[in-house]
Predict the structure.
Amino acid sequence: MPAAAFKLAIGKLTKAGILALALSLSLAVPVAAGPREDAATAYQRGDYGVAFRLWRSLAEQGEARAQAELGRMYETGEAVAQNRVQAVSWYRNAADQGLARAQTVLST
């Protein structure tokens, strides 16, 4: 085998090997969705009760985006009885942490 052909063959094997290694490593790492992502997915599919429970847990831990989501759910009556007082309370918690979306809702 001529030297040039050998180098070309090794180069192709090396590129193929690197690609195979990268692919296998990317498949080996599980993608784990957290409660925030699970809540958003549940909400998008219309499973408001699940979304509410997941966001409530996060909101009670001080997660501002989850607090704003609860505010919206109380405002619109999704999975809970519509309650403007609760909505404002959750929006206020999120706004106090600097969440612009919650601040905007409270300013309107």
Notes: The chain has a mean pLDDT of 84. Residues 34 and 49 are 17 Å apart (CA to CA). DSSP finds six helices and no strands in the chain. Helices lie at 3-28, 35-44, 48-60, 64-76, 84-96, 100-107.
